[in-house]
Structures are given as C-alpha cells and as structure tokens.
Amino acid sequence: MLESLQQDLRLPPFLWNILLGCAALISGLVIKYLVAVVLKFTSRNVTDYSLVRSVLSRLGKPINYFLPMLVLNMVLPFMELDKKSMAVLSKLVEISLIMSFGFVLTGLVKVFEDFITHSYDLKKEDNLRERKMRTQLQFVRKLAISMIMVLTLCAILLSFENLRKIGAGLLTGVGVGGIIIGFAAQRSLANFLAGMQIAFTQPIRIDDVLVVEGEWGRVEEITLTYVVLGIWDQRKLILPINYFIEKPFQNWTRTGSAILGTAFLYLDYTAPIDLLRVEFERLLKDQPLWDKRVQVIQVTNITERTVEVRMLVSANSSGKAFDLRCYLREKMLAFIQEHHAYCLPKTRAAIEEGEHPLIQKQV
C-alpha cells in the first residue's frame, strides 16, 4: 500500500523517507493522545485514587517515546535507503525502542507502587500490616528499577555483534574484576545485604516509631544503603542500614502501634490517694486520647520526703500516649492545687525544748 502510494505521488527518495518518518512519529503520538483521551474520559468523575489516572501519570512520557519508535520501526522496510544507511537507521531505531521500552517497564513498576500505596494506607490507627507492605514495596521498587536499567543496558550492548564477541572474551576478566570489586566494596555490599534482610525480616518498617542514639522519631525512608529517621522536632537522623542489624535500638511499634504511657506525681505523705484515683478515672472517662485498655494509679515509691504516685494509661499510638500523659499531669496538678494544696511536697522542721531557738531539727 505504501509502495503504491509512493508511485502515485512520485516523490524523490529523500523526501519520501522524511515524509514517512514524520508520518510514523506523528501517528504514534496521535495514537497515544487518543488512548489518553479515552482513559481520561473513563476516570473523569473519580476524585480519589484512580488506576487509570496513575497509568496516565506514570506511563504518559514513556509512551510518548515508545509508540512513535514502534511505528517508525514498522515502516522502516518501506523507506528507500542504501544498505549502509538502512543499517545505521535500523540500529538507531532499535536502540531507541529498547530504551523507551525500558522506560515503559519502569513506569509500570511505579503504577504498581501507586496501587499498593493506595491499598495499604498508613493513616489507619493500627497500620502494622500496611507498614510491612510499604517497607517491602520500597525495597522491591528500587531493586526492580535497578534491574530494568541493567537489563536495558545489556539488551543495547548485545544488539551489537562485535560486543557479543568481546563480552565472551572478557568473561573471565569480568569474573576476576567482580571479585576485586567485591573486596573493595565490602561495606557497600554489606549495606545492600542488610537492606535485603531488613526488607523481608523487618526489624524496622516505614512509619515505625524508634528510639535510636537517644533520639525519638519515625522511619521516613529505607533505601538500599541508609535509613532516614524523622525526629520529633523535624530534624533528620541518617543512619547506615547495617546499623539496625548490628546495634540495639527501641522499636515502639514492632508488633502494633498501641503503647502504655506513665506520668508521675510527687506528693506529701498526706495525699488522699483514693480521691486522686477518683479524679484520675473521671479525667480518663471521656478522653478521646485514651483507648480504654489500661488505667492504673498507684503509689510506686516512698522516700524520706515524698510519695511517688504513678499514673499508667494506654493509647493507640505513641503520639497520643505522649499527649495523654501531658494532659493528665496538667489536670491532676490543677486538681491538687485547687482541692488538696496541703498535700503538695513540703519540708518540715521541729524545734525541740531546751535547744537554741535558731537550732532546728529537720524531720
């Protein structure tokens, strides 16, 4: 059909080749545009996550390169070129097609990531399952994209006949070089293996609450070589990933986000513990920060001057537990000041008969 069209138009080969190439590129872009319009129409009423919207966002640019190259590759046999020029053009189109296909595969990985991210939302109160999936997803995504890039590069190199022969001749040298590089990059390889171990054994996960090096924070990112911990005051603590394999640390959300919290009061011996217990239970009764699992107020220690009263409560997350502890301290202190100020800590002194009035005995 194309040959008959050329004969009808009677165009010179140079102009025919340009026209055919431009038509191929434009037709590929038109096909992509029409598909995008149809997909946008199907998702026009969706306000939340949409798989179609994710496909358009992640695959839009890769398809812009892939479809024109695919159509151009299909019309190459109809171009009028000498053997040498055809070989060069075919090789360029082949390399471009391989590269654009690699970009398409990378986009598909990101579409899958968007789907899993939407399906496993971290905003839930008890998000243990979601944090497990997110941690594995982050590692698998980076590993998959790295493999796609390596395989794309290998496909391009193997498309050259001369490189195949050179590659076979250098196989032994590459093996020796790999061993040398392995010894030189032991620490990097250790970090990589530690990243794989953490991704699947999961001593830490995305959004876990950790206490590391005396700092409290949440896991924001786990890469192949390091972990980013967001500290409560918005600082970032960067740690090598093998730190979490070799050294101890606290994970407050290892098996769930629920946690216990304590708040202490230091009062005089005259403190009415039963009345304090009634007020403590009243404060918790309608408090949304409390998850209604644990509420205990006890005298946990007595010193020569004060009584230590511990309030033990539970909450769905460490953040809520912290706010609840602060709330109890403030309200209990206000209650004591207003109704039982006499039981605040005090220092007593007694003057014994017969002693100098300035000499006092402390009790």
Describe the structure.
The structure is a single chain. Among the domains are: about 1-120, no CATH class; about 260-345, Alpha-Beta Plaits. About 60% of the residues lie in helices and about 15% in strands. It is built from eleven helices and ten strands. The strands form three sheets. Strands 4-3-2-1-5 form a five-stranded antiparallel sheet. The chain has a three-stranded antiparallel sheet with strand order 6-8-7, with helices on one face.
Layout of secondary structure:
Elements: H1 2-9, H2 13-42, H3 51-75, H4 83-119, H5 128-158, H6 161-169, H7 171-184, H8 186-201, E1 209-212, E2 215-222, E3 226-231, E4 236-240, H9 243-246, E5 250-251, E6 259-267, H10 273-285, E7 295-302, E8 307-315, H11 318-339, E9 349-350, E10 361-362
Antiparallel strand pairs: 1-2, 1-5, 2-3, 3-4, 6-8, 7-8, 9-10
Radius of gyration: 35 Å
Q: How many DSSP E strands?
A: 10
**Secondary structure: helix percent:** 55-70%
Q: Strand fraction band?
A: 15-25%
Structural class determined from secondary elements: alpha+beta
Q: Regarding quaternary structure, how should these chains be classified?
A: single chain
Q: H/E element string?
A: HHHHHHHHEEEEHEEHEEHEE
Distance between the amino and carboxyl termini: 112 Å
Apparent shape: elongated
Number of DSSP helical runs: 11
